[in-house]
Design brief:
It contains twelve helices and 15 strands. It is an alpha/beta fold and 401 residues long. A hairpin with a 2-residue loop joins β1 and β2. α1 crosses α2 and α4 packs across α5.
Amino acid sequence: MHSQDAPILPANSHQGVATTITWLENGHDCEDVWRSERGAPAPKRVVLADDTLSADRAYRLACAGTGMLWRGDFQNARLLLQALARRCDAPKKIRRVSKSHPETNHTAQENFHLHRQAQSQRARTLSMILIQVNPDRQISLRRAPDWRAAMNEAWGPAGTTGCVTSLRELLGLVGAHEWHEKGMEISALGSSPHNRIHPSYGVFSPLRGEYIQLVADAPLPSTDLAFDIGVGTGVLSAVLAKRGVKRVIGTDLDDRALSCAKENIKRLGLQGKVELSKANLFPEGTASLIVCNPPWLPARASAPIERAIYDENSAMLKGFLAGLAAHLVPQGEGWLILSDLAEHLGLRTRAELQEWISAGGLKVIGKLDTKAEHKKVQDESDPLHAARAAEVTSLWRLGLA
């Protein structure tokens, strides 16, 4: 999802959680800064761990919320994390259902909340393997990689203090760094090898190409001026500029997103066509085209990093629809890119969406639909498979009523 300004990290929490974490080592009380970009609290209990720790013992400690500060071989810590993941993902034994205790049939909404609860517990469990990072961003463990470039990209320049963070988060920021270096091919931008989008850490990656293609295919009401609400990586602004829109203004509240979009627009040579502005939804003035791809699921994010996916109480969606009319020229269009997954999960109804459109003084001019193409559509083991298989992503063309 091109998200609300599409971050995958909180707009005002780029430094993560900065509290302290304590442990006993060599008979001394030790302390360091706790760092979590997910906003996870520091484990209340921390023990030292090394290569002698078995996966079963580590899993029991992790499930109990005990952090394991790693003092062994770094690559063994990665193997242990993989072993914990296998235990988390192992099929649970199913209690035999008797006639007197029939199996509970959950609604789609209940399945969604149960799935999120399980995913949250999984994340907490896997975050219990801890790594200490030196002030210079080196890791003083045998066979530890040099991840300074990834840390500096995600955290900014090194300071005078080190920190303790979870190995899982470190792997996440390294993966993001690799995506940023490699970039992502976006077919709607053309076939040139230079037409790639490079997502930064903390900014939602445009992995789902079907919604980008909708923006590439929809008939333009005008090529004079467009607003891209929630610019994220800048991918939709770039698509509009490539289609001939003379001027695009992309807005975002997230500094990481604005920086990422600026870099991508420069790479694509579109600086003369795309401007970036820090704003809550709309910039000043009116436009003939206003595009928005808000987070698609109206639920509370359990961690700041989930705010690109979850829009609690549909706040951004409602804000866009409520303010759109005031920023459209008389014959202009607002393009709302939205999946109906929330409807299949029982989190929002089509009637509610249509009511918000009408309440904003808007009418539906047309709608382009496309089926979801991501891998989970085919994964029948996914607890939300039925909803995902039925998912349709739409570009709603909205005009003044």
